[in-house]
Specification:
This protein has about 325 residues and is mainly alpha-helical. The protein has helices at about 1-5, 25-35, 50, 60-75, 90-100, 105-110, 115-120, 130-140, 155-175, 220-225, 245-255, 260-265, 275-300, 300-330; strands at about 10-15, 40-45, 80-85, 150, 180-185.
Length: about 325
């Protein structure tokens, strides 16, 4: 059994608890994680250290972190098959991040899209962490000798800079880090806003109608879908250039029902957008209902969730500290 685990490729991914998990988080990431659990050695992290590059309410951050853990499990991530942990509970992430900061170039960091976006949105708080977060992200990935990083198409830049840092470090000290590759799922990788379909669905969306949350009540979900932006035409057809709103709804419906775009077009041939939007909303409500109910049950069981995150951190630390000891030796730190 242990030999099989060692031979499996390793996957690492994480989501910030900076807001409640969205339908985009589930369809674009977590649903795919569940399907990878049997094939890979998986580390799934709640990246609370990344979250504080933007000011957080401490009470809310703690609540969301625990709620996110409950939602991970409710979505189907089995703690016995996956290593699920809170980033700040494994100190190796912060320790390796500092070292990698010293092997990350200023020019690389200044070109990062997320730094530019978040700086524009948080002009009164352009802090050093916001600038150097790719070094922490690289540490997250490289600590576990990760083979694959599940990311959306828009996040490939993060894996690319991680690889650049790893290449630079390995070029000086030998093969210390494994070279990670982005893993981009074909369906549901990029769920867009319901009100601004040119933008990705995001928990930071200022328009509450554009985003669906895993824990949202069914009436609010239906209301959002009925108000979803479409176009002036009347037929359901997949074309992201001319029909971004309808194409986004088709992507969501396909992920919720398993139907292909061709099957969806056939199903709604001759029917109006109103009926289509209602059907998409109903499919999403039924998909999320068992997840929401199970998450609510888990959130009430604080001792169980504590046992999960403590066990996960202990397991993650065993692998992370092994990599960190090797790095410390390579850079010339005196052994503890």
């Amino acid at each position: 059994m242990d030999e099989n685990i060692i031979q499996k490729k390793t996957i690492f991914s994480g989501i910030q608890p900076s807001g409640d998990l969205t339908l985009g988080s589930y369809l674009g990431a977590i649903k795919n994680w569940v399907e990878l659990s049997d094939m890979y050695n998986c580390y799934y992290c709640i990246v609370d250290m990344h979250a504080i590059t933007v000011r957080q309410n401490p009470t809310e951050l703690r609540r969301r972190t625990i709620a996110q853990l409950a939602q991970y499990i409710a979505c189907g991530l089995d703690p016995d098959k996956n290593t699920i942990f809170i980033q700040s509970h494994v100190s190796a992430h912060a320790e390796l991040a500092w070292i990698l900061n010293c092997y990350t170039m200023f020019g690389e960091l200044s070109r990062m899209t997320q730094f530019k976006d978040k700086s524009a949105k948080n002009a009164d708080n352009i802090n050093a962490g916001l600038f150097t977060y790719p070094a922490l992200m690289a540490a997250d990935i490289l600590l576990y000798q990760t083979d694959l990083v599940p990311v959306g198409e828009d996040q490939k830049q993060h894996v690319e800079i991680c690889r650049d840092i790893a290449v630079r470090f390995n070029g000086v000290y030998g093969d210390v880090f494994k070279m990670p590759e982005p893993y981009i799922p074909k369906v549901g990788a990029r769920i867009m806003s319901l009100t601004s379909p040119e933008n990705k669905m995001s928990k930071s969306d200022k328009d509450p109608g554009g985003c669906i949350y895993i824990m949202q009540n069914p009436d609010d979900i239906m209301r959002c879908f009925k108000r979803a932006v479409t176009d002036s035409e009347t037929f359901v057809c997949y074309n992201t250039s001319t029909k971004p709103g309808i194409s986004n709804l088709m992507q969501i419906y396909s992920a919720a029902t398993g139907e292909s775009f061709e099957e969806i077009e056939k199903e709604f041939c001759g029917k109006g957008y109103g009926e289509f939007k209602t059907k998409v909303g109903e499919a999403v409500v039924e998909m999320l209902r068992p997840i929401r109910e199970e998450a609510e049950r888990l959130i009430a069981d604080k001792s169980y969730l504590e046992s999960v995150y403590k066990k996960g951190a202990e397991k993650a630390a065993l692998t992370a500290n092994k990599t960190l000891r090797k790095v410390y030796k390579k850079v010339g730190f005196v052994e503890k």
